[in-house]
Q: What sequence folds into this?
């Protein structure tokens, strides 16, 4: 037996294995939970995420590879897996009351969410393109289903179908890219690709393959010009699903992209850096400009999510520069945390105001919120400021690290684009704030404990981490240093 | 002419003819059935290339299961009797242009490769069916053990997804 | 190397031939008295009416999807069976895990009533 597998194979992906077993057990257990008590399924799902998170943190500091070099455990994966599991917990917390209120309560919601998290974790740990592909499918398929969960609303069905069709299409690009890379190097493992690429002469095929990979991932993280699906899907999907997928899928996509580019394509820097820079700039400009004209809060946040993909992409641009690389990746990881925290909070507020049948989602529905529900309005203000990058919020600190990294990398123009687009974004984010404080209105807010808990906690985190960012940034930096 | 070449030529005619039949049939059910034949012809191509596992997968999964789903969807929608839907403007010309590019590319590749290498290289040794399957088995169950197991989770999730989206919750 | 598949080719030819012969002999030697009732398509003794291509109920969708999923599962068995002797217990354990995960799905589908025809 030890000839083919050894215990370190299993411990390398232990959190993912535990979560898989838990999810399978939950799928069966849910069959015996009566319909009125589906809340128990949510509790059990959260418990599974906590157990997996515990194991992840216990393993922190360890490094190993497993399954013949298919997966890696290192500081990078520990950091991001912890973030993904916390995102899963927020996802469950936001769904708990929301799905019941909207009449969507199904035990499978939580099971599918767990499976999606497993896919994301595998994607973070993958060090072979085959695993990347299959993990991407594992994270996507549950999201396609969850997006279409509200079958009574035609928009939800549209969201699921659109996400599925375009997602499959983009996976096609990814697979074709993998095939070309395999054709060029004879290997799908990152180390094998690097060995072949630094020894070989012709790398045109490899470059095209890498570019196709970028297209596939660009879709998942909603980068311009592969973003067309985002507003419709984010708007049509149940809001709790949108909250989870806008954070989780982005984290996993960026994690895989970072690892692939840093470990497999260091030889392609000259070709890929301009593409990445252009992609980042386009995404920041496109996302922020279109967001200006939005009146629906879900669409607004969707375009905001596109714009933030652009900011995070900035962290990739100097990836070929060994001096700047560790700092810029750490800045990228920090920004992923900042984005996830702020994003969950903002979606939590949206959930608190949403009514049956897609009501309560216009920005004008937020008019006078401050006079009706002060804590909620203040929390939303914090999130909007954080999305702009205004002090004292985590978004400001994240942007500061990012801009510093790209300037160190010699891309001053990109930092300028980032600053200018942030200024543009202030216009539409502040419009929400102005609506809450200065307009008259009778907004109605729900009060569900776990939703309140989520926006309350994330609002506190948004502010507190901005005053003491150093521990988190140090963790992100150490995570990256062990990667190389 | 070797027997392989003769077989290839016959199959090539069958494959092209069935592909044309699929495109030109007015009735969508006929199209689907032509596609089954086309898949079968391609499966034999895979055999000719020394890839029996892919050939078998092609027959079981594509010609078998996928086509069942295709036929079902056609019959569910009643698509075989639907009037032809509107096409995009200039779609025909765009398709023609793209086809020309594709053909040009293929011809260029064949010509340039032929000049450079002389003949397109064959794999070093053709394995017989059992050895070929054994190699795939070893790769799949030793080297690619993790992706193999994750595949089963993927199938499970797909199953749950299909059931969630089509079955209403009882009493819900 | 294609000679290995000669048995399949022979089988195809023989089975086609047997079918043709069976039908052909009946057509050639059987008595043929045509009548309206006889030229009607046979459908379990009922008189068929309406168009041949009726729309299928959407229930078949789930069955078709489940069929594809289990079909893909079966494809994996083929190379496994070939290397089973070499992998012994390890191979068995792998496949047991693979099947167990799918059995969870099967159990789920069963309990959800996805296999019932309402």
A:
């Amino acid at each position: 037996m030890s000839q083919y597998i050894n215990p370190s194979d299993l411990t390398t992906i232990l959190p993912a294995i535990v979560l898989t077993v838990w999810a399978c057990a939950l799928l069966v257990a849910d069959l015996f939970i009566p319909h009125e008590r589906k809340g128990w399924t949510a509790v059990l799902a959260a418990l599974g995420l906590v157990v997996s998170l515990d194991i992840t943190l216990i393993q922190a500091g360890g490094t190993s590879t497993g399954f013949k070099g298919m997966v890696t455990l290192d500081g990078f994966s520990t950091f991001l897996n912890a973030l993904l599991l916390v995102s899963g917990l927020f996802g469950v917390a936001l769904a708990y009351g929301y799905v019941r209120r909207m009449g969507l309560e199904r035990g499978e919601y939580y099971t599918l969410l767990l499976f999606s998290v497993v896919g994301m974790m595998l994607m973070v740990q993958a060090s072979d393109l085959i695993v990347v592909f299959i993990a991407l499918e594992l994270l996507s398929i549950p999201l396609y289903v969850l997006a279409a969960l509200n079958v009574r609303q035609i928009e939800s069905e549209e969201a699921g179908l659109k996400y599925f069709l375009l997602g499959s299409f983009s996976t096609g690009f990814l697979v074709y890219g993998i095939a070309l890379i395999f054709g060029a190097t004879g290997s799908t493992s990152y180390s094998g690709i690097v060995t072949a690429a630094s020894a070989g002469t012709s790398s045109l095929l490899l470059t095209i393959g890498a570019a196709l990979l970028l297209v596939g991932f660009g879709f998942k993280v909603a980068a311009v010009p592969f973003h067309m699906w985002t507003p419709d899907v984010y708007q049509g999907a149940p809001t709790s699903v949108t909250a989870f997928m806008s954070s989780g899928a982005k984290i996993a996509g960026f994690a895989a992209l970072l690892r692939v580019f840093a470990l497999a394509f260091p030889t392609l820097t000259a070709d890929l850096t301009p593409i990445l820079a252009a992609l980042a700039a386009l995404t920041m400009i496109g996302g922020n400009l279109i967001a200006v004209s939005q009146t629906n809060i879900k669409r607004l946040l969707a375009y905001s999510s596109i714009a933030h993909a652009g900011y995070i992409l900035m962290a990739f641009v100097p990836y070929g520069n060994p001096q700047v690389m560790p700092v810029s990746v750490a800045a990228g990881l920090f920004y992923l945390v900042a984005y996830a925290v702020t994003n969950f909070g903002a979606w939590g507020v949206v959930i608190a105001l949403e009514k049956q049948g897609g009501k309560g989602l216009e920005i004008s529905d937020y008019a006078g919120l401050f006079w009706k529900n002060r804590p909620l309005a203040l929390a939303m203000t914090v999130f909007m400021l954080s999305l702009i990058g205004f002090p004292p919020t985590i978004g400001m600190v994240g942007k500061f690290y990012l801009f510093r990294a790209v300037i160190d990398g010699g891309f001053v123009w990109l930092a300028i684009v980032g600053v200018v687009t942030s200024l543009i974004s202030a216009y539409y984010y502040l419009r929400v704030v102005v609506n809450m404080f200065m307009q008259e209105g009778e907004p109605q807010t729900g009060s569900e404990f776990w939703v309140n808990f989520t926006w309350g906690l994330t609002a506190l985190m948004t502010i507190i981490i901005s005053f003491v960012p150093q521990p988190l940034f140090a963790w992100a930096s150490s995570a990256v240093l062990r990667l190389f | 002419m070797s027997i392989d070449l003769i077989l290839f030529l016959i199959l090539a005619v069958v494959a092209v003819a069935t592909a044309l039949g699929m495109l030109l049939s007015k009735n969508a059910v006929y199209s689907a059935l032509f596609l089954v034949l086309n898949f079968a012809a391609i499966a034999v191509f895979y055999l000719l290339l020394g890839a029996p596992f892919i050939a078998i997968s092609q027959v079981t999964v594509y010609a078998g299961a996928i086509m069942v789903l295709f036929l079902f969807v056609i019959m569910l929608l009643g698509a075989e009797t639907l009037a032809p839907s509107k096409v995009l403007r200039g779609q025909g010309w765009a398709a023609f242009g793209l086809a020309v590019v594709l053909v040009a590319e293929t011809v260029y590749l064949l010509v340039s490769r032929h000049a450079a290498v002389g003949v397109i290289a064959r794999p070093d040794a053709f394995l017989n069916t059992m050895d070929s399957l054994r190699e795939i088995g070893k790769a799949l169950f030793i080297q690619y053990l993790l992706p193999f197991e994750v595949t089963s989770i993927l199938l499970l999730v797909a199953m749950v997804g299909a059931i969630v989206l089509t079955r209403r919750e009882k009493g819900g | 190397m294609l000679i290995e598949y000669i048995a399949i080719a022979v089988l195809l030819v023989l089975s086609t031939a047997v079918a043709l012969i069976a039908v052909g002999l009946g057509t050639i030697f059987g008595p043929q008295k045509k009548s309206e009732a006889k030229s009607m398509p046979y459908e379990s003794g009922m008189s068929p009416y309406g168009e041949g291509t009726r729309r299928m109920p959407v229930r078949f969708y789930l069955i078709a999807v489940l069929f594809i999923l289990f079909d893909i599962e079966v494809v994996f068995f083929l190379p496994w069976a070939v290397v089973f002797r070499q992998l012994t217990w390890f191979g068995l354990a792998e496949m047991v895990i693979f099947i167990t995960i799918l059995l969870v799905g099967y159990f789920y589908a069963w309990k959800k009533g996805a296999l019932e025809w309402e």
Remarks:
- The mean pLDDT of chain B is 83.
- Chain B touches chain A at residues 142-147, 150-151, 153-154, 156-158, 160-161, 164-165, 169-172 (CB under 8 Å).
